[in-house]
Amino acid sequence: MSFIDDDRPQKKTAHEIGTDLSMLSVDELKARVELLKSEIARLEAEVARKASGRQAAESFFRS
């Protein structure tokens, strides 16, 4: 019987702004860059969604 925990869900990589990066490998740094890029894209999409909703509301009340 094997006690290897390969079936356990992997802990999701997270990044905390300002943390020490010196102990991370190049691969870990690249993974964090990709994580942050995807988060920036998600944030920008939400900004665009909210801006279009606000524009629609302003347009409605101007009429």
From TrEMBL:
InterPro entries: DUF1192. This is DUF1192 domain-containing protein. It comes from Rhizobium phaseoli.
